[in-house]
Design goal:
Blueprint lengths: L1 E2 L10 H4 L21 E8 L4 E9 L4 H13 L8 E2 L3 E4 L10 E2 L1 H8 L11
Antiparallel strand pairs: 1-6, 2-3, 2-4, 2-5, 5-6
Helix pairs in contact: 2-3
C-alpha cells in the first residue's frame, strides 16, 4: 500500500479544513449492492497545470474488483484535448475524515483484479 501525495500546492479538502464531517454513509455503486463503500476507483487527470481525481465509482469489498475492471475499460476509451492526461485507474481506500490527497492506494487489490481473481467476500460467478 502506498499513500497518494498531492502535487498541488494547496493540499487537503476544504470540508476537513473547516472541521466538518459528513454525517452520512457512502454506499457501494455496484448494482444491486446494499454494502457500504470502502474503496474509490479513480484515475489522476491532468491538463498539464493541475490534477484532480476522475472517479469511476465507489465500491464495497465485494464489488471493488469488478468496479476496477470497469474503470480500466472506461479509461481506455476516454478522449482527450491537447495537453490532457489520464493515468491508469487505481483502487484507493476511503478513509472518512481524511482528505483525498491522503488516500492509500491498494496495489494488491489492483493486481488481483488484473489477474481475474476475487476478494475473500466475493463469490465467483
Amino acid at each position: 500500500m502506498e499513500a497518494i501525495e498531492s502535487p498541488n500546492k494547496i493540499t487537503g479538502d476544504s470540508a476537513n479544513a473547516l472541521g466538518m464531517k459528513f454525517p452520512y454513509r457512502i454506499y457501494c455503486q455496484g448494482k444491486p449492492c446494499p454494502g457500504e463503500a470502502r474503496y474509490k476507483v479513480a484515475s489522476r487527470w491532468s491538463d498539464g497545470f493541475t490534477w484532480e481525481w476522475k472517479t469511476y465509482g465507489l465500491y464495497c469489498e465485494t464489488c471493488v474488483l469488478k468496479g476496477f475492471t470497469c474503470g480500466l475499460a472506461h479509461q481506455k476509451v476516454c478522449a482527450f484535448a491537447r495537453g490532457e492526461n489520464l493515468d491508469k485507474p487505481m483502487i484507493l481506500e476511503l478513509s472518512p475524515g481524511q482528505p483525498s490527497s491522503q488516500m492509500v492506494r491498494r496495489v494488491d487489490l489492483e493486481q488481483l483484479a488484473e489477474l481475474g481473481q476475487t476478494t475473500s467476500g466475493e463469490a465467483r460467478s
